[in-house]
Amino acid sequence: MSSIMPPAPVILWFRNDLRLADHAALHGALETGRPVLPVFVLDEAAAGRLAPWGALGAASRWWLHHSLTALAAALAEAGAPLILRRGPAAATLAALARETGADAVFVGAVIEPWGRAQEHDSAATLAAAGVALRRFRTGSLFPPDAIRTGAGTGFSVYTPFARAAYAAGGPPGPRPAPARIPPAAPPASDALADWDLLPTAPDWAGGLRATWTPGEAGARARLARFLETALPTYAANRDAAGQHGTSRLSPHLHFGEISMAQAWHAATDDAAGAEKFRAELLWREFALHQLWHHPDLPSTPLRAHFAAMPWRDDPAALRAWQRGRTGVPLVDAGMRELWHTGWMHNRVRMVAASFLVKHLLLPWQAGEAWFWDTLVDADLAANAASWQWVAGCGADAAPFFRVFNPVLQGRKFDPDGAYVRRYVPELARLDTAYLHAPWEAPAAALARAGIMLGRDYPAPIVDLAAGRARALAAHAGLTAPLAT
User: Fold this and answer.
1) Does residue 264 have an active-site annotation?
2) Of 85, 92, 123, which Cα lies nearest the Cα of 107?
């Protein structure tokens, strides 16, 4: 009596696409008609190739733990368990193929340099074992090299990039999640708890837990709330620090719990605010475009003459900025929001970043590293491109002489002081007229609010006018680019 061998499975390798809906690699695997083995590999060796940018920051590790928990539950409901393995991706995937008889690995390609190297190594190792690595686009609106100038190069200015992206027709409509995934016989799996992704003592993640719901269901719920409550006024309110006027989808997009195409098409053409929201999605895509064409974007200024910028070395000032103790309320509120929630309002990010690189004249890479460790949406492309933009050394960058005045920015985008009062409670009783510049408050106003500067709240660590002048003087000698 002959027995029929079950068909060999295919491996579905999850990376920064932790969802089931609109997942091209998953659909590719299903179209084979064979059992599917979903896998996530924690490859800390590959991450070390681009340290610190490959290794996950602490906030991202917290998010990943919960996102994988949600993905495992969704996969289990669809009938296929999630296998967790820790180690070099190439060797780990080859071992899984040997254990299961799989002859193909389906994966979403990534933009990050260390991830591209990981794919290259994995493809070579798997090919030597007779296993094919099949790449799909799961993390961006367009293939990374699809949007090009007339000369065939990458764009360095956002507006023509966006124009070319719109001319390309926009992304295709998203595909729904499959109702069922044919399971493969599961090999051994690591326990997620053994990966130690969560903080131990002290447990600093209370604010993150209160603010976020990682996972695909959380992403869908966040998008639905945004479409209902904030999209109609998005263009007008997205810069208002004290309001919930933004989508807050950035961590969900970074971990791929929702696709860019899902967000793009959810904001229908006739919806108020849709045009501005799509422009912001394209700005994120522009950051991916920059990283694809400039793999050293996280460390090297695109404008080469900035390599000679005389940045200061001031650990005490950096520490004050990191902890929200600069004595400048809007900056401190933003840095404390970041520490508490793992996220910072988009307008305040620009102000806090400008304060670091211009008023304090500290290198943008120092701010980039802090954001990498503390943001739940610590996306390599967006983080690097945004810091270079603020510092004036990146693509389509703000000119260096544009120095955000945190007092004026606070009065314009937090006029009633709701944001500062929320995150800098020691200033909560101060009159709104002085809230964004407490050093200007008369003694009587400070006394009424129960504030002594230098005791209850720091005096500014830098005079804003003097800091601006120092930054402009430092930049003045960089007008002639260095030879490259």
Assistant:
1) no
2) 123
